[in-house]
Structure prediction request, 329 residues.
Amino acid sequence: MLTAIVNASKSFFHHVKKIIKNFTKPTTTVLAPSAASDIMRSRKDLIAENAILRQQLIVLNRQVKRPKFTNGDRLRLVLLSRLTQFWNSALHLIQPQTLLRWHRDLFRLYWKRKSRSKDRKPRIPQETIDLIKEMTEKNWLWGAEKIQGELLKLGIKISKRTIQKYMKKVRKPSSQNWRTFLKNHAHEIWACDFTTVTSLFFIPIYIFVIMELESRRIVHTAVTLNPTDEWTAQQLREATPWGNRSKYLIRDNDNKFGTKFSVVARNSGIEELKTPFQAPKANDYASCCTSMERFSMTSRGRGRELSLHPRCLVGTASPVGSSYRYSGF
Prediction:
């Protein structure tokens, strides 16, 4: 009997508390009822709610389409929401479920750092780690799979990921990368590339340019309607008269640079440097030069943009194809 009376009393007081909370909850549509309900609230709740609103205004004033909350913003909103029971009514930029999720993430991060071992020892023996480092130092060309295979021959079974973890601490960057190579040998490197412009009748016209890297000097340029391996080889032959050549020539993997082009380069004493596939920045010097050449050929005149017309190109017949030089206007 006494238990039933206690339970009924708790239920009644809980119902009354809920009614009072709903009555004193601030409304967001009408200003007067909201101000009247704030009179009955404690000063602590009002200060906490104002702090929450002020923090959201700080985020909103960053003038972005979708305000982004930093980790500090999330932490401050979570801490301020614990100071008032009306925290869910003070949220306008986020949903209450979002704030609760941030609260759970904060607890998860806290206990993750709390349960982390201070002196975590590796799960594999130290002798095996030393062996991996020694194999990496003495065999620079070996990858993780190769080292894994060598360890399997010794009866040591380790995953590839674990081997890569201990290889990172030993491997050093190469002494010379591509940029350093170009900087050190710019005086003896040529670069060549093609670009296209469109004629008045929508016919593609190909511009071939060879330039020197150090001085950005245009060594040779030519224009054609039908670029072939024979034509490109002839242009390289004309660009290297009387032993005037470079040591290296950067080119891409286009079929215009075929076997005949390679034969001319080899006979001239030039070493070809082929750029990797899908790496346009490896030959960005020649690409920039061809872009400027295309701009100069399509914008000649008195401030007007002109398209190349076949009559503007003076052609010379040859067995390897048709080549043209620009005659101007």
